[in-house]
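Hi R.,

Here are the chain sequences for the assembly we discussed:
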Amino acid sequence: MTADGYNFGYLDEQTKRMIRRAILKGVAIPGYQVPFGSREMPLPYGWGTGGIQITAAVIGPGDTLKVIDQGADDTTNAVSIRNFFVRMCDVATTERTAEASIIQTRHRIPERKLAPGQILVYQVPIPEPLRWLEPRETETRKMHALREYGVMHVKLYEDISVKGRVSTAYDYPVLVNGRYIMRPSPIPKFDTPKMHRMAALQLFGAGREKRIYAVPPYTDVVPLDFEDHPFTIETWDQACALCGATTSFLDEVILDDRGRRMFVCSDTDFCQERREAGHRGDGGPNPLEEAAE
Amino acid sequence: MYVATKGGEQAIANAHALLAEDRRGDPTVPEITPAQIREQLRLGIDRVMAEGSLYDPDLAALALKQARGDQVEAIFLLRAYRTTLPRLGYSEPVATPEMRVHRRISATFKEIAGGQILGPTFDYTQRLLDPSLAETGEIADAPAAGQGVAHPLPRVADTIGREGLLEPDAAEQDDGPIADLTREPLRFPADRAMRLQALARGDEGFLLSMGYSTQRGYARNHPFAGEIRMGEVAVEMVAPELGFAIDIADICVTECDMVNQFKGSKTELPQFTRGYGLVFGYGERKAMAMALVDRSLRAEELGEEITAPPQDPEFVLYHCDNVEASGFVQHLKLPHHVDFQSELHVVRGMRAEAEKALAESPFKEAAE
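And here is the predicted structure of the full complex:
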């Protein structure tokens, strides 16, 4: 029991057991969406309730938790979720990717390569990769069962023939373990290759849609593409203005109403570690210089 | 120089302090108590309990106070709390024919056995603002509620049912195991018990509009208000150590039996069919809307042509829960700058390609 009188992890033990069973089924069938009795949580649907329920079901007193949103530990929703677990579990938290045993994330995979034994928990808004092509759940479940994925390839092909490229920028569909097409949650394309044969366990929770799915360690996760139009990721001409990194996902920060901008690492821990190791960026445009002009 | 923003934590704490201050309002006005809300804003409480799926007027009053009167927020608070309650067991079905009735009307017959009982209704009030309510004061005595009301009151549907003009009660047709929407995910095809559970906790506004649309020609099914009754029913539970059912609570519910036309089919004679609504508390508008939507969702079962959203279980059931809908709509407030950055890449890339193609086009000069 916590100080507030709630059970460890907020959920009662029976509910946690039910969620763990769903997780185990998900791990046994990589990429398959397992329906589960998702509960109302004290945070709103769409704000990470699926991820929170997974974390609540797998976390123990010895765990160290890291929570990120858009790659950063200090975004408001990440702060709120981290505070929730501190209150409900009294566990240790960290901003260091390397030190965390569980990392709950929204929209990013950390830049640092994850290690065996770590668990990455994704918050998923819409778990069904075929949803924009077929709104009915009864249909899409059939399509998965029959491996009837033609519509998805046609969609990608049409993108290329009409727009010259696949226009999906994030939540890019992947094939897991050669069997199920899966939504990786709204991570940028940039992060998709990190999922392939990742050493950490990847768990996905969609609370409102009541689905859990998983990618066990070292599982094949391949973005859908064509031989003559291979999958590509975002690249930047700039380096991070703070740490000088050229290999990380960069956020574009607008500095003023004249359109001046700078680019900084979206992964705040990655950026911080590099700066501590002595790396420096160019600091971005200097507003004082501009004022002097 | 730009420094990565820190301080989400402090900003949240400040926002919550502001919220508490705004909730209190002008401190020279006495603070409202949950007991006042419970007693004087009872219909607000009833809706919070119904859609919050938890019958507890005190907690509902607390939730409404905490939510500053925002019903959907109060419903959310109650739902999040009920998550932490263990499921001890399931009650026996409540017997609404045994209800201690406060209100009971039928639009299908002028006179019904037991009589039409108006009860504490807004109906037939003229909606003129009453300035006397701006002041506090004594109210005139009302005739004692429930006086002279027969008990138990037979259900109107049973009267029509005797002639075979009305299909039998669903409860009489189906005695299979009943799923529990609060413990299991919604799955399709969803049986009627599952659908009714979803509708009972569904958003009143959503169901009202859905039901209303069936009256305006979308999935039209000619409803009559067979009976609407409101009052207290006993909740009974079988205690395993006793082996028989005991009363654990009395709750107030509103029930609506809607009677709808049915043309008949190859195997069945024309008869009236039913739409059913049942909600916690005094929630007549919700119970009626629920009954309309329940009936329209039976389109497939009754072999009717499916032409409109109120007949589509996936459409109605996936979108009627306001806790789900409110959360997901409002999650758009959360930062999405990483995804937006990726979109910028795609759009900039496409524009650059198009501009390049235009610049290299042999028709460029002609076009200019």
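The mean pLDDT of chain A is 93. Chain A touches chain B through 72 residues (CB under 8 Å).

Let me know if anything looks off.

Best,
T.
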